[in-house]
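Exercise: predict the structure of this protein bound to PRP.
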Amino acid sequence: MSYLTLAIGSGRTANKAMKLLSKAGIEFPDFHNNSRKLVIFDEKKRLKLIFVKAVDLPTYVEKGAADVGIIGKDTIMEERPDVYELLDLDVSKCKVVVAGFADREYETAKSLTVASKYPEITKAFFEEKGIRIETIKLNGSIELAPLIGMSDVIVDIVETGTTLKQNGLIILDEIADVSARLIVNKASYATKTNQIQQFINEIKEVLE
Ligand code: PRP
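Solution:
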């Protein structure tokens, strides 16, 4: 039986995903927190794990370079990959929010400059609200943008709320609750159905 290739986004989801796999009895002897290895196998050689940049993960799964992937719902909402989303892993729970200063006009604004690493989510949300926006796409430290006058508000994920608080920003609107999801390449699901279903069942058991 050939192995399944599982993509994991390096960063905040990776450690939580590794813990979940370990709970399910799937161990990776070569995994260490500060390891720089990008490809590792589980001890039974059923899974080949590849670590990829989170924002690229949907592409790896959509193109079939990985059969399955574990990725935040925020990235799925932004990238809209043509894949199956089969399981909510109930870890890495965050909110996608609009944040900014408490004392500035928001609800009544006709136009806003918004900094975000999620331009598609931002566009859809403000279109619905009928607010005209200019989006500034950034790749990190989004909270800095309103502090230095580069944007009126930001669209970003909040987990503990510490980053907002320490920078004097508050949540102005909530867009979505997000968590880590299991996504599956469509062709792989057709050709490796049993393997993928068995993997999903093993994970499901530890979620219950
Ligand atoms: C994310 C997000 C916020 C922060 C929120 O950034 O963009 O900045 O985490 O977490 P908190 O509510 O627990 O403070 P990340 O750590 O991924 O780094 P980045 O700024 O480089 O994107």
